[in-house]
Amino acid sequence: MVDTGNAEVAISWWEKGVQKEKDGSMNDAIRFYREALKTHEGVEKLYRKKLFEEHELEKKLEQLRLDSIDSRNDTVSPGDQAQADEDEDDSQRDPCWLLDILPPDVLSRIVHYVVLQSGESWLNLSLTCSTFNRLCFHEMDPYRTFARMIYPKQQYDEMAMDLNGISNIGIWEKEFWGPNYRKMLMERPFVKFGGIYISVVNYLRYGANQDGSRSWMNPIHMITYYRYFRFYPDGGCLRLLTTDEPSMVVPHFSTDTPPRNSEMCRWSLGFDHAFGHLTITRSSSKYTFVEELQIKDQGTRIHQRLKWLSSVIIDKEGEVTECSMKKEKPFFFSRVRSYLPSSTMY
User: Fold this and answer.
1) Fewer beta carbons under 10 A from the terminal one: N or C of the chain?
2) Domain count, the chain
3) Which of 68-77, 157-166, 248-257, 310-319 has the lowest mean pLDDT?
4) Distance between CA atoms of residues 10 and 44, nearest Å
5) 334 near 196, Cβ under 8 Å?
6) Where is the F-box domain (predicted)?
7) Which of 30-39, 186-195, 312-321 has the lowest mean pLDDT?
8) Over the stretch 186-236, which tens digit does the pLDDT of each residue have?
């Protein structure tokens, strides 16, 4: 049962926060929001309910006003009526319950622009209410918008296209998925640019006892190192192998400020492994390094993981040396808000 006293106080704090946010005073707004949540954790729902009830009441009052005007039309002069209408219009408040005020096509446009911001924003909007959930995930337009945003940025290997008889990606898309963009997004992997892929490797290394030690057991060292991949839509990939933790690397991991010992690579997608064959190459004066991975799902998160397939070194004579994958672990994608403008994050 809702504590009426606490609820009213919480709503009051929340309304002050809303007003401060409208005025541009975000620090004050956050302070009021926090006070409201401390007073009642469900204050946002209570506030929205209050807005809805107020809007419904306004509609009823408006209807009563119109009925009253109709009954007075025979007795009020045109000049007096115009003045009365003007006074009443000035006193009216703008309605604020969006789902009742805005028509479906406007709500669909809101969904469209939210999808262009990021996949995360798309998901968050769908969780707000049943109406937006339906518009987000039970209509084809959001899927089409998202697909047309991400797939043109994917880099496909030209040799792989020739071997598979593909000369035009657009035609290939239509042959496989037609207008079903939802199915395409589920089945067709893509590289994500709005964050970083991280692989964490832990292994034990057995040391040796010091001379003269009487211990029967050798010391054991836990070794941890990290691999980082950050992909770019132009086909570039920033790569780093280090013992530095993500908190030290991620904020500044960029081609503008490349970390020490990082390397710039090239990436491309092939059509094997359910269209998720990812190849990363880099070269030195003596060797070419080729790393192959597969884009896979992580639970309910689609295309979130990179699984190792192989890693080879090719020398100038063309001799190939395979690297051991025994200790290597898969990469997992982590979204980083600061990496890209919001319109290209996903």
Assistant:
1) N
2) 2
3) 68-77
4) 9
5) yes
6) 100-139
7) 30-39
8) 999 999 999 999 999 987 776 665 655 555 556 667 789 999 999 999 999
Q: Which two tokens stand for residue 251?
A: 């904020």
Phi and psi dihedrals of 41, rounded to 5? -70, -20
> What's residue 78's pLDDT?
46
* Nearest alpha carbon to residue 196 among 160, 165, 227: 227
Note whether 226 and 92 are same-domain residues: no
Helix (H, G, I), strand (E, B) or coil at 293: strand
DSSP 294-330: EEEEETTEEEEEEEEEEEEEEETT--EEEPP-SS---
The predicted pLDDT at position 290 comes to 97
Q: Which residue, 304, 275, 267, 269, is CA-closest to 175?
A: 275
Tell me if residue 83 falls in helix, strand or coil.
Answer: helix
CB 303 within 8 A of CB 190: yes
Q: What is the secondary structure of 35-62 as a DSSP string?
A: HHHHH-TTHHHHHHHHHHHHHHHHHHHH
End position of a domain, from candidates 72, 101, 130: 101
Looking at the structure, do residues 96 and 209 belong to the same domain, yes or no?
no
pLDDT digits (tens, 9 = 90+) for 248-273: 999 999 999 999 999 999 999 999 99
Domain that holds residue 9: 4-101
Instruction: Report yes or no on 128 lying in a domain.
Output: no
Question: β-strand 331-335 against 320-322: which pairing, if any?
Answer: unpaired
- Token pair of 215, please? 């211990």
Summarize the confidence of residues 313-336 as an average pLDDT.
Answer: 93
